[in-house]
Structures are given as C-alpha cells and as structure tokens.
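Exercise (ungraded).
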Amino acid sequence: MTNQQKTSVAEQIDQMMQRVALGVFLVAVAYAISTLEYFVSAQTKDILDIVSRVLGIFILILVFPKFLKFVILRRNNREACREPEGFVVEMFNQATGKAFQFTFIFLITLEFVSKGFLADLPGVFFVKATISFSLAFFSLTFFYLNRGRNDSEPDDNFVNGENT
Amino acid sequence: MSQNDLAEAIGVTRKTINTIEVGRFVPSTIIALKIARYFDAPLEEIFSLTDKP
C-alpha cells in the first residue's frame, strides 16, 4: 500500500467523524423538537412531527452513505485504519468526555428544576431533554475544538520545521 | 517539504501535522516516534517540553 493511499484513508476517517458529528447534531435537534411538543398546541405538534420525520430521513441520507463507505474502507484497508489517531479523532474523544461531564451537571440541574415548574411533565420529556442536551453539547464542542483550516485549503511548506 | 508530504509519510491528515506544528495538538507517542523516524532525528530534537513561566 502506498503512502498516498494511507493518507486518503486518514482523511476519509476524519471526514466520516465530521459527518457523524453533524448527524449527531441533527439528532439533537430532532430530540429538541420532540421535547417542544409538550409545550405547543395539537396543530403545531403535527407540524413538528413532520419536521422530525423529514429531519430523520435527512440524517440517514447524510450519515449512512459515509458510514457505509467507511465500513468498506476499513475492510479493504485494515493496515491503514490502524494508523495512529490524528487531531480530529482526538477532538472527537475530547468532545465525548466533555459531553459526558456536562450531561451529568445537566441531570443534576434537571432534578432541581423538575421539582419546581416542570413537575407536571412526564418522565419521557426529561429523557428526551437530556439526550438532546448531551448530543448537542457533544457535537457543538466537537465543531468548536475542530475549528480552523481544513485539509482542502492551501498547504504550508516548511523545511526542517520552519514555514517557508 | 510540505505538511502534506509528512502527513502522507506517517499516515495522518495534514490537519494533524498543522495542529502539531502550531502547538494546538499534542501528538500521541506513536505519531511523535513516526515523525522522528521520518526526519531520522532523535525525538527530543523535534519535540521538547516548554519551561513553566
């Protein structure tokens, strides 16, 4: 296997991670919409249902082809997929850890809030709210950590560690 | 040489090399060793600890 192929595998893995994060964000939006359904009229609820379904289909179209491509890539390039984890994978892992921490804080906050003005709402509302928060926090943290130049932008040439 | 050349050589993306270069990303031991091997230089010649102020 050539080095060129290895790099393209690394880039494809990064692209897959970015696509997954985008998909996760949209899932968070879908959950947020379903939590809103508890506060709106029946007519608006129907509209939100349709929006949720359209969003679900969009998520499938967005993420599934990339995921399938990744599975095939991994099967055909096992060696290249074992290469060390780069920046995007590390940011993905960091975002996961931060999302877990803040979800815990969110749950504690929700416990206090649920005793007050949200006491009438069913348990499923809180589950949906927590999932929405957790997924949104993860994806937004990932986008923030992963901000900056993309690989498609012009290259910096450097010799012996110094930019030219 | 370019960041792309180094990235290709060690099997990571150019973004990984770029973020290491600007000090935004601390590479794993494996990446650090691969970079050192690529430049045929000791690890401490490429990476070093910064003194605390």
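Further reading is listed at the end of the chapter. For now, observe: Confidence is low (pLDDT under 50) at residues 159-164 of chain A. The first strand of chain A starts at residue 158 and ends at 159.
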